[in-house]
Amino acid sequence: MRVVAAMSGGVDSAVAAARAVEAGHEVVGVHLALSRMPGTLRTGARGCCTIEDSMDAQRAANIIGIPYYVWDFSSRFKEDVVQDFVDEYSAGRTPNPCMRCNERIKFSALLEKALALGFDAVVTGHYADVRTDEFGNKELHRAATWAKDQSYVLGVLTTEQLAHSMFPLGTTPSKAEVRAEAAARGFSVANKPDSHDICFIPDGDTRGWLKDKVGATQGAILDRSGNVLGTHEGAHAFTVGQRKGLSIGYPADDGKPRFVLEVQPKTNTVVVGPKEALDIAEIAGSTFSWAGLDPVASGIAASVGAPFVCEVQIRAHADPVPAVAVLRDGELVITPDEPLSGVAPGQTAVVYVGTRVLGQCTIDRTVSAVPVPAAS
């Protein structure tokens, strides 16, 4: 097959591209330029899309012996990832920009361009596994090593995108093995640290960055009964589960710390309460997708609207939790066997059945496991 290898400049994508060549594919390396102002993206080990990363990718492509190009996706990245991040926080939700980048850039914009140019698939260095069932249907599964598994951030892939995606590292037992292979191949990135954090916030100060983008307007901090406890300088600076920075000034009646339970951007208010009120008994989202066959076609659900047993994961590095899910009134409604902690609207809930990624939804609403007390 003719494939595009998305080369970030890291060790994983370099080894993935090399393995694709050795598997007999015709490979072209592509680095995604996500900003026309490189200083606005993180540098060194904390980034993934800088000039130095592009140079690292090119050196790896030269060693592999494949053509290498830089494709400019800066406009799409600014609109679909950066602006989405601002809009979501402005609406009181907590987005995952890496998931949006996978969804809208790497497996939408990049794949669309690759297919338009006559390529058959996109290769990345993600740790996940694409399998084919006995009837020829593609399925997305966890990687062989759960410690490095990245299937959560790929949960947004659609059935069509999955059919044109390749993850050569999915069955690799460990990241150490990938680094050893990179060193044996002579890649300079063999010991390059993993990228992390948000690439488009250069100094890592998310609160300060959002303040510049959204502005600061004073609002009220309320308890769950609606009593005013204090003020804040902008609701966008708070996330569900946050404890520090509330500046209420006096303890709760029970002397226990208080946590952000809800952010209400329309009224610019922040609701706080005890830690146990962070426990969530139900989550639901109207924007959902399936990575492969849907639950009914897979035989997982008896019929449309019938509940099915699954596991749900709400963060990239969280443990999956047993749950029951059902499509009801246009929403994917998920009820965990045990309450989830600190879930915020805007997060992504990825649904698994065994190792298979069944699909995902963006969380629109949550139901607390702890009733709201009567107003005092």
Automatic annotation (TrEMBL):
Gene name, Swiss-Prot/TrEMBL: mnmA
Query: Which residues carry out catalysis?
Result: 101, 199
| Keyword tRNA-binding recorded | yes
From the UniProt entry, list the residue stretches annotated as the region Interaction with tRNA: 148-150
The chain positions of domain tRNA-specific 2-thiouridylase MnmA-like C-terminal read 305-363
The family assignment reads: Belongs to the MnmA/TRMU family.
Q: Name one GO molecular function term.
A: tRNA binding
The record's catalysed reaction(s) read:
S-sulfanyl-L-cysteinyl-[protein] + uridine(34) in tRNA + AH2 + ATP = 2-thiouridine(34) in tRNA + L-cysteinyl-[protein] + A + AMP + diphosphate + H(+)
Gene Ontology BP annotations? tRNA wobble position uridine thiolation
> What NCBIfam families does the record point to?
PRK00143.1 (NF001138), trmU (TIGR00420)
Report the superkingdom from the record: Bacteria
E.C. code: 2.8.1.13
- Source organism (scientific name): Glaciihabitans arcticus
Provide the site residues for: Interaction with tRNA.
126, 347
Listed A to Z, the keywords are:
ATP-binding, Cytoplasm, Disulfide bond, Nucleotide-binding, RNA-binding, Transferase, tRNA processing, tRNA-binding
> What is this protein's record name?
tRNA-specific 2-thiouridylase MnmA
Subcellular localization(s) per the UniProt record: Cytoplasm
Q: What does this protein do?
A: Catalyzes the 2-thiolation of uridine at the wobble position (U34) of tRNA, leading to the formation of s(2)U34.
The entry's ATP-binding residues are: 6-13, 32, 125
Q: Name one GO cellular component term.
A: cytoplasm
tRNA-specific 2-thiouridylase MnmA-like central domain: residues covered: 209-273
